[in-house]
Amino acid sequence: MDKKTHGIIRNIEWKVVIAFLFLVLTGWISIYAAVYDGEHSNIFDFSCRYGKQLVWIGASLIIAFFVLIIDPKFFSQTSFLIYAICIAMLLVVLVTGSVTKGARSWLGVGDFGIQPSEFAKMSTALALAKYLSTINVDMRKWQTKLTAIGIIALPMLLVLLQNDTGSALVFLSFIFVLFREGLSLYVLIFGAGAIVLFILALLINPFWLAGILAVVILITYFVVHSKNHKTKFIYFLGILVFCFTVVFGVKFGYEEVLGSHQKDRIEVLLGKKQDYKGVGYNVNQSKIAIGSGGVLGKGFLQGTQTKFNFVPEQDTDFIFCTIGEEWGFVGSMVIVFVFIWLCVKIIKMAERQRSNFARIYGYGIAGIIFFHFFVNIGMTIGLLPVIGIPLPFISYGGSSLWAFTLMLFIFIRQDVSRSELV
Question: What does pTM read for this prediction?
């Protein structure tokens, strides 16, 4: 073993690697349980999904190995090139991509297919890190803010045009990176306020809501009235315009932009309608499966909801209900704990980096992994709308697994580089 290889092995954050392997192995076993068939019970049967997933796991380990031996500067030096390639792939998908479940998001060659949107998240994290780590870039400047938002918005828009709303929403996680790099807290407050107004606009008549907001804002204005009343008035007028724009924008978007199935999912989530046999079927069956697992679960291959295929997409978007049914509350909490620990660990590793690029990139992937984990589990237990995004490292699929593996091990390689320089 040469000195360089020995140094890489010695400086790897092995706890993160072990967490990665644990999640990947859990995913493989859960996929086997979700699609188990007595006639094809061999876990190494490559004609079944769990067999194919094993091949993709093997490929992901090879990817991880090569990422670790590559010069870490390669990723920072080629960040914009990787970003441009992914943007080009997203454009190609819009023209020649195949449609799956209503979304034109796949590029296929024979039996092999790849989903560029999964890799676009990683490339955006790289490009954003490269730009924000450039000398003289300052988040206090509007030029910097607009350029950073543009880097995020371009792939997000292209993914949205593919009718893949779930994957497009993941790009919102980069707000976490911008906040860490100096974006004003007021932007986050306005963002959180817009989300609250969005929900209220769906529950309350927008005209009534606008009237209530106008009264509350005017009363607040007179309460905090000061000598500098002109500035205060303009400030509160801006808030009022912002609220009205969000409220009536939601009404327009809800009525004119969203598809009927998306409206149905939102209304089921908000309790405005019950549809256990239609759009609410998946979530209802998922909650039954998770709840039936109890504290310790029914045991491996013993889940009735899983075995009799009551939950559609149980090896992909709803893989967590398989874990909940077979391993119960305890098993579910182990998975939740590992994900939370992984995200916190990545942030801690990011803060110790000597390179601004590595730190910013670390925050980017922590945000992406947390968004996927939080939303995926949230939708399987009925707390969030079903938007169709995988559970990292666990859900069935080669594109998702490879993209998350690349994402994580590029950061691990950056951290190894930091240790080598100490």
Answer: 0.85
